[in-house]
């Protein structure tokens, strides 16, 4: 039995004699396919630059700014850095290539995949920016609550924390979370009966082995590190938030133009089938 569910081919309606029929071409109109392709090529170049910037900021954050992350009680600070690196890598390695292939070959499937990836990148970047700004608001509370306890319980007990605390003292020229007077309550000094130090050697104005035996202001830093570390982290989080939220707006334009080009290509293909 022969199936009757075959797709019917559209047949153009008969045109009366003497009537002029104007058939719009592929590149006719102000928003032609060629125009949108040109816009998307320029957008892809901007997208590549934005991806490289995100990668650069992410690597800078990972290599330079996360040295004190072991002193924080939550992983939000590191998470913002990893999200930035993931977004930049996705743009440079995947989305840029798919976008160029879709535009060059006028492939609707590639264009819709490209638009989907742009939407995912938009969500990632917006989420990174929002997370950075939310954490920037609460970082002071976290430091006040946990920094002193972390420093007193992990110094000389954990290698990474010890290195971070020594770096903290020398970078910000400070000693202890609140002040140098915090250190007598540390696990390190209470457990080590052999040391004569009253503060870590990294608290000294001129660090040297055993220099922390005197707590005179001519020998050690007196101010605490909490306020300096708070300002350092807040500034860094503001930079990450600004970069992420600023670049996420770019994805919207690419998403719109990719969908427009896919729609126009679909209509053009239908029109070719109609007049064939």
Instruction: Determine the strand fraction and express it as a percent band.
Output: under 5%
Number of domains as seen in the coordinates: 1
Count the helices. How many? 6
Main sheet characteristics: none
Specify the structural class: mainly alpha
The average pLDDT value, as a whole number, equals 84
Rounded to an integer in angstroms, the radius of gyration calculated over CA atoms is 31 Å
| General shape | rod-shaped
Helix content: 55-70%
CA-CA gap between termini: 30 Å
**Based on DSSP secondary structure assignment, what is the total number of beta strands?**
0
Unreliable segments (pLDDT under 50, ≥5 consecutive)?
A: 1-7
Order of helices and strands: HHHHHH
What can be said about this structure in brief?
With 276 residues, this protein is mostly helical.
What does this structure look like?
The protein has one domain (33-275). The longest helix is centred in the last third of the chain and has 50 residues, at 226-275. With 276 residues, it is mostly helical. Helix 1 runs antiparallel to helix 6 (226-275), helix 2 packs parallel to helix 6 and helix 3 packs antiparallel against helix 6. It contains six helices and no strands. The model is unreliable at 1-7 (pLDDT under 50). 64% of the residues lie in helices and 0% in strands.
